[in-house]
Amino acid sequence: MNIIENQPALLVLDVQKGFDDPYWGKRNNLEAENNILTLLTEWRKRNWTVIYSQHLSLEPQSPLHYKNPEGTEFKDSIKPLSGEVIMQKNVNSAFIGTQLETYLKTNQIKTVVITGLSTQHCVSTTTRMSGNLGFTNYLVSDATAAFEITDQNGTYYTPEDIHQTELATLHKEFATIVKTSDVIKQLK
């Protein structure tokens, strides 16, 4: 595992205030934003590429609805700086309806380090597409978080169950699963 070999881009997916809404239910990993900030700080020190996605939902009931400026706003600790790229989207994948793939290829970025919210939505979908498009992916498990769900049969799944299951389905097939400390260790 050599994450830093090609100056990877850091993807910060949908870290928006709307994910603090009770609409989503219980969440795991309340340290995700702190871990994202740790990674952001390291990327910024090196002047490496940071790319944000911002979800602008078309679903009126969503806290991330495009007409809800409070919900679509980035969380304060994770706000983009001038020069950092923002890809706005209406679906779960940061590749659909955006210039993300073109941007990465034009800038000869072959490796991405993926963080954000939530594991079962944008993180999973973007990771899968990124892998299918040929990028090398490192998904930072403790810089993402999931929400509880109840399935079509009424079976309840905890946020931690969802998080771990999503990571397990992505590992080796679409990404290498790492922790923030693994990435930081390689940067030192």
UniProtKB/TrEMBL annotation:
Its EC number is 3.-.-.-. SUPFAM superfamilies: Isochorismatase-like hydrolases. One of its GO terms (molecular function) is hydrolase activity. Residues 9-181 form the Isochorismatase-like domain. Keywords: Hydrolase. It is an enzyme of class 3 (hydrolase). It holds the Pfam family Isochorismatase. The keyword Transferase does not apply. Belongs to the isochorismatase family. This is Cysteine hydrolase family protein. The lineage of its organism: Bacteria, Bacillati, Bacillota, Bacilli, Bacillales.
